[in-house]
Amino acid sequence: MQNKWWHGKVAYQIYPKSFCDSNGDGVGDLQGIISKLDYLKALGIDILWLSPIYPSPFVDQGYDISNYVDIDPSFGTLQDFDELLAKAKERGIDIVMDLVVNHCSSEHEWFKKACADLNSEEAGYFYFIKGKDGKVPNNLRSYFGGSVWTKIPGHENEDIYYSHYFAKEQPDLNWYNPKLREQVFKLVNFWIDRGVKGFRVDAILSIVKDLSFPDLPADDTDGMCHAAKMNARNLGDIGKFLNELKAKTFTPADSFTVGEVLTVTPDSVKEFAGPDGYFSTLFDLSCRELVESHPHYRMFPTVTPDDFVKCVFDTQDLYQKVDAFVAPIIENHDEPRGVSYYLPEYLQNEHGAKTIATVLMFLRGIPFIYQGQEIGMTNTKFESIDEFNDLYAKDEYRDMIEHGFTEEQAVACCARHGRDNARTPMLWDDSPNAGFTTGKPWLRVHQDYKTLNVKSQFGVPGSTFSYYQDLIKLRKAPEYAQTMTYGTFARVNIGSGVQAYTRTALDQSQKILVIANTNQEELRYSLGDLKTANTKVLISANDAKLDADGTVVLGCGGAIVLAL
Q: Which residues are catalytic?
């Protein structure tokens, strides 16, 4: 593997709307982020990914972009962004932006011009398709429910529709049009020229379409099929598009890029993230794929610790086989809090936060931490559908009511699976609104902010935050950095509820063992011949220990990292 500037680094995702509000309007902003750069530096962060900060109507929280080359006023100005770039660079932190180019906003100038004149150049930037037999072109269901087809504004009396795999306010961009692709390359290079070091590439598989627009077999009683199932049929088209994007933007700038890609195989991983792949790395979304392979919240399974570790370890094996880097995560802006989702109830606390963090931080790849994860934020207790902001959750609530759920049951299901769990404000201290804002927060504040916050943990030995600091320091420590970055991964099978693996230096000179126990019962595991005179504990959580006879002792939630 060729060494890259981003190898060995740790990344952090900020959801700007919920991170820190500097002006009291209830919405986080760029100056708020700037005010917390020293905090991120203290944590040990090298790369900072910002969810969208472009001008937007915020139908889908900024993933509906109305202008790709500016900053939304709610976040600040281009000058604020330049200041963020400069001050982050002073602290050794590089900025990565969200690149959302499967679709734009219906308020974007391109779409407005297209709707005004169906023969315009901009009309070719979208999929304007005639219906079939008096119906929509096909039976695809959008990610947010309902058909992916809506009649074109101003042409409601005509049998012509536009495609939107997400909300109707997010028209899909036609990547089969070379003029559209050139527009995309220009906007990417605008930010590269400004100093952005890379991009997280959103929903990129959706850019490929079957231009015959066929129906697919229904996957639910509504007679429709999830749009994602069309993506997998047409991946042969994507190489042309992504290689061109890479050649005209990412490669000349040596950008770090991470793709949001589901349903990977050995062949597709190599194409997307191998040595000559389209992107630097891909997020490990295998756990989300496990639940989202079902079309509705009401069908989502409960993910056990064994399910979680199988997904994560299978991904490690898959990427290692093709010499690709993965980006392991526990949570992001589209997921519930991992501590509440992947761990049993008795570990949905600070002990569980440390346990799952230990497993994450030493995996092969470039780990991403999501804001609040480093203090062990859990799911928020939403009590009414009116407290949710997310389109996805609101649509799923309607679906459950239609299928006989009570309001209480539907809200509880949305509260378990909903994306707003990750979008509630960052918890800075125990003051009103958790120190996030002096105004009214745009989304409700977590119920435990009085005790679960940065102020109560920063500089406090034994806190979740301090433990994350120690994990990051260990991952980057000069004596272990080569093994942590390039060493091989191998799972260790100890038993149900136990998550264990090794990382071994390429020259076999060093081996690291990671073990975490998610069972309530104590685990006693003998190292046997693995123990040497040099075996030592590098870090441990929740009273985990190594006895003199080489027995690892892990209580409930115990986690330990050993140099063998």
A: 202, 260
